Amino acid sequence: MAVITDEPKAGFRLGMLIYDTRYRSITIQIVVLFLVMAGAAWLIDNLLRNLAVLGRGIDFSFLGNRAGYDINQSLVEYTNDSTHARATLVGILNTLLVAFLGCVAATVVGVLAGVLRLSKNWVVARLMTVYVEIFRNVPLLLWILIIYAVFTEALPAPNAFRGENATSTMVMFDSVAFTNRYTAIPWVMFDNSLGWLALGPLWLNLDLAAIIGALVGGFLINRAIVRRATKIQEATGERPTTWWQSILALFGPIIAVFLLLGTHVDAPSLQGFNFTGGLQVSNSLVALWLALTLYTAAYIAEIVRSGINAISRGQSEAAFALGLRPGRTMNLVILPQALRVIIPPLISQYLNLTKNSSLAIAVGYMDLRGTLGGITLNQTGRGLEAMMLLMLIYLIISLVISGAMNIYNNSVRLKER
Amino acid sequence: MKQSVFLGTLAASTLLAAGAMAQGTSTLDTVKARGELNCGVNTGLVGFAAPDANGNWQGFDVAICKAVAAAVLGDASKVVYIPTTSSDRFEQLTSGKIDLLSRNTTWTFSRDTDLKMDFVGVNYYDGQGFMVRKDLGVSSAKELDGATICIQTGTTTELNLADYFKANNMTYTAVPIETNAEGEQQYLAAACDAYTTDASGLAATRAAFADPENHIILPEIISKEPLGPSVRHGDNAWGDVVRWTLNALIAAEEFGITSTNIDELAASSQNPEVQRLLGTSGELGKMIGLEPNWAMNAIKASGNYGEIFAATIGESTPIGLARGLNAQWTQGGLLYTPPFR
């Protein structure tokens, strides 16, 4: 019973690329790819040619030159003798600082506002609605400028703290001064500072490293003590007294480090034009941080609200039936499930906040856009190179943030077995 | 496969791009064909370039735009004013968005060479100074150790400031700002102790204050800031037009040609250089591709250099700048134009 299927061996014709459904989609894809690449190549080529005509090829060597300008806030050592690359690093760190502070604060405020917006208390729920609608519907740049302007106009200049009949006084036992330039607060200083360890372009603050090391070390020792106690308890049934060991392990190393470093608290005092000593948190940082936080938190509140609403009412009713109080229901039943809905859009908000921090230039906060994309660009005139580098760095920062958040997302995802 | 497609595309598009690229035409022809001059000016600096109550741009730098438009197009009103910030002005010029940058811009080596601009001359010899409130009790810039200073970012002043404080072993905190208006606001709110920019700019800014008498400009001038109009590098014909228009304004003051007596002088002057300048003899206009009466139009636009200075930033205006270095060489100043011959 040989069934001969006589497959027609039709040769491949060119027309089949369009009329044969097997090939058509591939044909279209290749044509589109070709057009996209042609467009990109044309643009790039045009750019390079025109730059060549102007006599200005792509050249990144300016990064190694002396920057020559000063930056008002820098987390690592920087003077005007440093290179443009170093100024860029200062900018990156300032961007990361405000982005980190913003993300943390926005999450706290956002979750609170989102939960409160669902509150049964009419006033609280409406207040949160007003907050969300106001901050969501006014451009971020305006918020940054308004908050900064309020700081600048409403707070006193450092001069107002001077003399016998000063018009302003420091608060918190004469230790904190709110001025229209910065907030001066006391800060810990080290007499025997370990300084910085240069690791290529990145510098490590040894004081900070020692403190973190002491904290982590103490924590690890404490864990070993508790484990040993548990082991003894399991073997003998009696748990040895460990509280004094734990306290010693947790606080001993850190206190020792602080003593060795010669720690003392340095309070700000008015000298000359400005406060010296302590730490001066510039208003531009605070204004930017507040604006980014409140603006992004309004979006996060909506995300949290939708996440909670996505959990069916039956869940909370079941929890109530089991006798859980509303707070415990929220913490143990609703939020863990809602997180799965909340995390993915939350990642985009973190990315938005980080990228929005480039509005810092409006208040003179020297972030990446202000150093590399601002002063360096202007002083060297290397606009294209600086912008490309700027895009690359923001891209990397964003990818790292979304990568880290995706790892967290995977850990809270519904485990399918 | 993908590789070869890409290479093919690249090759094809290179050919296309070569054909599509705009041929480098002279800005002079472009401006004549357009019938309008695109002139880059300050976003607003009273006396130098700012719109008046009727929205018409007025000022010392604006007068250069008008003179060039009058010389090239015969009509001083054929100017499109494009406000530029200190950070985008060079890109605006090199990208061709503006034909001429007349915006209190300092002539420096790197701008002239690396940024591919050509400064055609100096219309104001300036230097960087500091302005402080009188009640601060400061009388010299050397007393500014530890001060907070407002500064426009992207300007030469930023680097001068760093150098000056370093040389004098002093420290400061910079408050970077984008525009002069922003700096004014920060300074008036006492968010900075001192405001630094070109001394002329400080005078202009102070003139706009409600209480100019409570602010002083410190005597130290910490840099040389020759301000002048600039054009794109490599377009020499256009550069010549702008350069000699500026020179014509300066020469007119030297020869005593004013906007009021210019017609009379054109008809009756026996001075050969005046005749050549005003186009009644010789062919100077033809040599730079303009009408014979180009310089006459330029001077008529808003007067000679001295008239422009007096009307916009001079001692009778709120800005109240003395001629100082900007007097004619015959008066002990630095203004010295090459001969019109």
Features:
heterodimer, A: 417 residues, mainly alpha, MetI-like fold, 3 domains, two-stranded antiparallel ribbon, 12 helices, 63% helix, B: 341 residues, D-Maltodextrin-Binding Protein, domain 2, 2 domains, three-stranded parallel sheet, 14 helices, 14 strands, disordered N terminus
Please indicate the count of domains of chain A. Answer: 3
Q: Which structural category do the helix and sheet elements of chain B fall into? A: alpha/beta
The global form of chain B is: globular
The strand line-up of the biggest sheet of chain A is 1-2-9
Task: Please name the CATH architecture of the largest domain in chain A.
Answer: Orthogonal Bundle
Shape of chain A: globular
Q: How many beta-strand segments of chain A?
A: 9
Q: Please identify, by name, the CATH architecture of the largest domain in chain B.
A: 3-Layer(aba) Sandwich
Largest interface, with counts of residues having CB < 8 Å to the other chain, equals: A-B, 46 and 55 residues
Q: Count the beta strands of chain B.
A: 14
Number of helices of chain A: 12
Q: What is the CATH class name of the largest domain in chain B?
A: Alpha Beta
Q: So, the CATH homologous superfamily of the largest domain in chain B?
A: Periplasmic binding protein-like II
Please identify the oligomeric state: heterodimer
Q: What's the gyration radius of chain A in Å?
A: 30 Å
Give the CATH topology of the largest domain in chain A. Answer: MetI-like fold
The proportion of strand residues of chain A reads 5-15%
Gist of the model:
Chain A is built from 12 helices and 9 strands. With 417 residues, chain A is mainly α.
Please, could you describe this protein's structure?
The complex is a heterodimer of chains A (417) and B (341). By secondary structure, chain A is mainly alpha-helical. Chain A folds into three domains: 16-54; 65-139 and 282-417, MetI-like fold; 188-266, no CATH class. Chain A has helices at 16-19, 21-54, 84-117, 122-136, 140-154, 206-236, 243-260, 283-309, 313-321, 326-356, 368-380, 383-412; strands at residues 177-178, 182-185, 187-190, 196-199, 202-205, 263-266, 269-271, 274-276, 279-282. Chain A has a three-stranded antiparallel β-sheet with strand order 1-2-9. Chain A has a two-stranded antiparallel ribbon with strand order 3-6. In chain A, strands 4-5 form a two-stranded antiparallel sheet. The longest helix of chain A is centred in the N-terminal third of the chain and has 34 residues, at 21-54. Chain A starts with 15 loop residues before the first helix and ends in a 5-residue tail after the last helix. Chain B has two domains: 27-125 and 227-331, 3-Layer(aba) Sandwich (D-Maltodextrin-Binding Protein, domain 2), CATH 3.40.190.10; 128-223, D-Maltodextrin-Binding Protein, domain 2 (3-Layer(aba) Sandwich), CATH 3.40.190. Chain B contains 14 helices and 14 strands. In chain B, strands 10-9-11-8-12 form a five-stranded mixed β-sheet. A three-stranded parallel β-sheet of chain B has the order 4-1-5. A two-stranded antiparallel ribbon of chain B has the order 2-3. The longest helix of chain B has 20 residues, at 236-255. The interface between A and B is large, with 46 and 55 residues.
